[in-house]
Amino acid sequence: LLFPVSNLCGKCRPRDTDLLQPSLNFLYWSLHQTTPCSQQRAVAVLLSNVSLLELLQKVLECTWLRSPPSEPAYLSSEDALLCSGWLLVASLLLYQHRYNTEVHQTLSLDLTEVLNAVIFRKKKPILLLVSIMQFLRAVLRQNFSSSLLVIVGQNTAQGATQPQPPSPQDAALYPLAMWQVFSLVVSLQNLLVHKDLVLSQAVVACLETLVEYLYVKNQDVALHVASQPWHRFLLFTLLNGGQKSFLQPEVLRLMALFLRYQSSNIISQKEISQILQEAAEANLAELPEATSRALHLFLCQV
Predict the structure, then answer these.
(1) Which residues have a Cβ under 8 Å from the Cβ of 270 and sit 6 or more positions away?
(2) pLDDT digits (tens, 9 = 90+) for 30-49
(3) How many CB atoms lie within 10 A of CB 280?
(4) InterPro entries in the record, alphabetically (predicted)?
(5) Sequence-ordered strand ranges (E) for 38-104
(6) Do residues 23 and 8 lie in contact, with contact meaning Cβ atoms separated by under 8 Å?
(7) 8: helix, strand or coil
(8) Distance between CA atoms of residues 289 and 301, nearest Å
(9) Largest CA distance in the chain
(10) Helix 249-260 and helix 289-301: axis angle, to 10°?
């Protein structure tokens, strides 16, 4: 079925949402819900379809070309198609790298536009933000070096009218700039305050991947980002709800992240002891799967 469905997608236009959205979903799940052997073949089939990749290019570009909806929580058919497109491309990036699959057509994206889609959200629905963050994680994990993706656009100093020579920090973080990193971190922090489970999981995962990327590029920058005092205020905000327990997935993963990068000004021995005490008193068999995984990660980091 991959052949006719992918060929059908290649003949469509981005506005053919009723046909494209379920078709892209089918391609996405075909990649994820199959055996490793079949998965490798599926990736090869999709990456050999030039028309499909050209369509995906057009779909992704619609993210910043269309006007934002009046209601941010409302997921229109156009937004649903964008979600499917970003998730499918993120998966293709992941599996193309894993299997070193031949690429017949590259995708070209402006990194500044992608980052601005998250930094300046403009009432984007939560699921669309989650989908774009999945894509960001994929390119960060691959160090922006995927043979499937070409990053275009020049970084300039924020607000500058003429391109400026990059600072040593910007040069080390290329193609990211320092102001983009801090803007993205602040935006991710603000998204966490929404306390939406799906959004929180995506935000923390994106923050983890971003700091890992920064640590490889410039350890001082990574440690500086991880030790921002605003993180501590964020933790207090997350704990200041109906459920004050530390045993929340996003809280545990953030704590593990701060422990990993030795941010002692963010997490203290007192908080570590409180988490260990709550874990000792909890019925571990009844914890949600996301909480169990986050607790395991935290304990391993301790």
Answers:
(1) none
(2) 999 999 889 999 999 999 99
(3) 8
(4) Immune_Signaling-Apoptosis_Reg (IPR052133)
(5) none
(6) yes
(7) helix
(8) 18
(9) 60
(10) 20
